[in-house]
Write a structure and sequence with these properties.
This protein has 6 helices and 6 strands, in the order βββαβααβααβα. The chain has about 170 residues and is an alpha/beta fold. Strand 2 and strand 3 form a beta hairpin. Helix 3 crosses helix 5 and helix 4 packs across helix 5. The protein is globular and about 40 Å long.
Length: about 170
């Protein structure tokens, strides 16, 4: 399989966008996050990855998201490799409303595994598609920011970005 790599600058740091030949988003990760970069390299080591000479659809979606269109990834074709449990967690994450948060326990309950909050945390950490699969929207049971591979300051910035623009979504929908 041939994969396309794009890089998009953002207020949160440069992001790497990987899509496949069928147009599905396979990875979205922060370039400067060592753990995420190692995971990306391991995940796609058997595939041919090339730098894109022009922005792909998902790089355009990311730029739209950064400009305030929080719905930019809502209908995106995503292909995140993971276990059935991980995919169920990632699906639940996509149902957290823009500008909102949920706890690990709430996600565990949403997928019918109320005692699996720690496993939800592990699945969240394994998420290969940051922002589009909004693992940044998951917080600790006491309301604090916890557990973001890109760093808690970055998580705070992304949540602030979404809160700012989510009011525009509500106003536009009314």
């Amino acid at each position: 399989m041939q994969l396309q790599l794009d890089e998009v600058d953002s207020p949160f740091g440069a992001l790497l966008v990987v899509s496949d030949e069928e147009g599905a988003l396979r990875a979205l990760t922060f370039r400067d996050c060592e753990a995420m970069s190692r995971s990306l390299a391991a995940r796609f080591k058997a595939h041919r990855v090339r730098r894109s000479p022009r922005a792909n659809e998902h790089a355009r979606r990311l730029r739209a998201y950064l400009a305030g269109d929080l719905r930019a990834f809502d209908d995106a074709k995503l292909r995140a490799e993971g276990t059935e449990f991980q995919r169920s967690v990632w699906s639940a994450l996509r149902r957290i409303p823009h500008g909102s948060t949920a706890t690990y326990a709430e996600i565990a309950a949403a997928i019918g595994r109320p005692r699996a909050a720690r496993a939800v945390g592990a699945a969240n950490h394994a998420n290969p598609i940051a922002i589009a699969i909004p693992c940044h929207r998951v917080i600790g049971s006491n309301g604090t920011l916890v557990g973001y591979a890109g760093g808690l300051e970055r998580k705070r910035q992304i949540l602030e970005h979404e809160r700012k623009w989510s009011t525009a979504i509500v106003a536009h929908s009314a």
